[in-house]
Amino acid sequence: MIRDKKTLLILFGMPVMQILIFGFALTNEVKNSRILVADYAKDVASQQITARIEASRYFDVEKTILDHKQIESAFKEGKIKLALIFPERFNEDLLHQNKAQIQLIADASDPNIANTLTAYSSSIIQDYQNGLNTTYSPPYRIETEIRMLYNPQLKGAHSFVPGVMALVLMLVCVMMTAISIVREKETGTMEILLVSPFRPLLIIISKTVPYLFLSLINVISILLLSVFVLKLPVNGSVLLLFAESTLFIITCLSLGIFISIKSATQQAAMTVSLMGMLLPTIMFSGFMFPVENMPLPLQIISNIVPAKWFYIIAKSIMIKGLGITALWKETLILAGMGVFLLIISLKSFKIRLS
Amino acid sequence: MDAVIVDSITKTYGKEKTHAVNGVSFSVKKGELFGLIGPDGAGKTSIFRVLTTLLLPDSGRASVDGFDIVKDFRKIRDRVGYMPGKFSLYQDLTVEENLSFFATVFGTTIKENYNLIKDIYIQIEPFKDRRAGKLSGGMKQKLALCCALIHKPSVLFLDEPTTGVDPVSRKEFWEMLRRLREQEITIIVSTPYMDEATRCDRIALIQNGNFLSADTPESIIHSYPDMLYAVKAENIYTLIQSLKNFENALSCHAFGEYVHLSVKPALLKGTTTPAEDHKNTEDIKNYLSMAGFKDIVVKKTEPTIEDCFIKLLS
């Protein structure tokens, strides 16, 4: 075993990696979430609460007064996770009626984050209220009115269906194609295929097209299940979702082909696609652990994970009901990745042995 | 123009630059059945891979069917047939599916060239719905040959097609190759079996990446310079040991149940008189009985390719 460097590396390197990654990067805890404070009151009380919220390390506060439409579009673009809205005459209400309202609007497409964020902000507001009550005799009450956007019932399925879709497609497409070409190399059939009019592009196409169709069947079955069994409707265009899925599948297939071309054995190809693809997909897609909370280097790394972009796209279409105009950037990134992988696959395809 | 022209091809592997092929030159005429004969590791497969454009030679030039193996590799790939040493068909596909797959790859149909493979395919046709992986060794090779032939290649490369095949199938296989010659297909075939050499029009004996000799099997045998005797006694191991010390012995090696002993000819090479033969036989017999051997048989024998190979090695 001493001579088997790879095993040693896995044996001792893995725990170190895991501890570091899970300890620092992958936390469910919510930090530095971007929230919006729309202060229509601009009085003492509202500013004091805003200051407290700003002081909290959980929030990254942006203060602007926007109308409802703009707030909505900020949510749609995923710019903010939570909006705090102070109505006009907030302090007056508080002083004269002993009662005031704050509206909290949360992006509930990820129910966990929405819950945590509203709980944090409510407790800060509660804190402020309690502080007031020690000095003033009649008890003041600040009511928080919480609205969960997109997913009022906080169903878990809302976030996990797009996540599972990204994961399953990634796994099936990458693993299946990853072994496809290297298997031909192992069995020796590649030797005959090379000495034939079959060209690399044709080999790649014939290896990927069947899996494209199989994966589309997977997409259909996931969607049917989520609509009819989990009662989760697709809010956006089903056609767009299909087109985006096809794009993601092609990107994954190209990735698999690239792995297959680069690996020497089927086993190596399997290991690379499992360790190298499954883990990053789970960690960096934003499906299990919010990407926003990770240290910056990991956030940058997460950008090269295709599943992250597809997860954003799928979630936006299915839950937020967005159209292509809101998602062209993510779509372009995915398409770019696909084209890039396809080109380097073609370039690195060995037209000879060794 | 010759179908295959090889001009001092060299191929090395790895950092140590081990020579697999060491400056080999030969040419094969159109419609010829050319054999590369040599033991494992002699460089046969490397030559095949260079000629089928799968490997680039380190130096030297070669052309197949008039096309350069480096520059025009695509054109060569379109027109040659190649059967690698390792069975390389799709094991999960049936016999018929394999055949039609390769026909499609080369842009033809089974029907179009059926006459070419008919003799061979007819033998495996009863199993056409069986998966290729479930065939016996001989049938696998027949199927592989069909697949390599289905597009009517101009040159057919067969790398050790009879290795791991039973003697009867081997014989059949060679008969098929003889028949293919009539179709004007140039065939280059390699084999480690010396007894198969005589079935080729011309052969090249290879060892360690070098050609020892390249000629027709007959003239290679004819150029064998020594007199050869087959000797038999009860203990073959001690027999070889003591024959090595026989005064006129050049070399001796086991050959089936006999030991082949080569003796320096007294006269011109290859020409011996019956009297000389008789004297040599008696000399060997006497020598052996003096050494205490029993049941001694000594007879004059004709050299085989194997004897020539061993002679060329020494």
Overview of the molecule:
The complex is a heterodimer of chains A (354) and B (314). Chain A has a five-stranded mixed beta sheet. Chain A has helices at residues 5-25, 44-55, 68-76, 90-97, 111-135, 157-187, 189-194, 200-228, 238-262, 266-284, 296-302, 306-320, 324-348, and strands spanning 33-39, 59-63, 82-86, 99-107, 141-149. In chain A, helix 6 (157-187) packs antiparallel against helix 10 (266-284) and helix 9 (238-262) packs across helix 10 (266-284). Chain A is of the alpha/beta class and 354 residues long. Chain A folds into two domains: 33-149, abc type-2 transporter like fold; 157-348, no CATH class. The longest helix of chain A has 31 residues, at 157-187. Chain B has 314 residues and is α/β, with parallel strands linked by helices. Chain B has two domains: 4-216, 3-Layer(aba) Sandwich (Rossmann fold); 224-313, VP9 protein domain (Alpha-Beta Plaits). Chain B is 33% helix and 26% strand. Chain B has ten helices and 14 strands. In chain B, the strands form three sheets. Chain B has a six-stranded mixed beta sheet, with helices on both faces. In chain B, strands 2-1-4-5 form a four-stranded antiparallel beta sheet, covered by helices on one side. In chain B, strands 12-13-11-14 form a four-stranded antiparallel beta sheet, with helices on one face. In chain B, strand 4 (59-64) and strand 5 (67-68) form a beta hairpin. Chain B is elongated. Classes of the chains: A alpha/beta (354), B alpha/beta (314). The interface between A and B is medium-sized, with 15 and 24 residues.
Question: CATH top level of the largest domain in chain B?
Answer: Alpha Beta
**Mean pLDDT across all amino acids of chain B:** 88
Cα radius of gyration of chain A in angstroms: 25 Å
* Spatial order of strands in the largest sheet of chain A: 2-1-3-4-5
- Rg value of chain B: 23 Å
Strand content of chain A: 5-15%
SS elements, strand count of chain B: 14
Tally of structural domains of chain A: 2
Assembly state here? heterodimer
Low-confidence stretches of chain B: none
Percent range of helical residues of chain A: 55-70%
How far apart the termini of chain A lie comes to 29 Å
Helix-strand pattern of chain B, N to C? EEEHEEHEHHHEHEEEHEHEEHEH
Q: Superfamily at the CATH H level of the largest domain in chain B? A: P-loop containing nucleotide triphosphate hydrolases
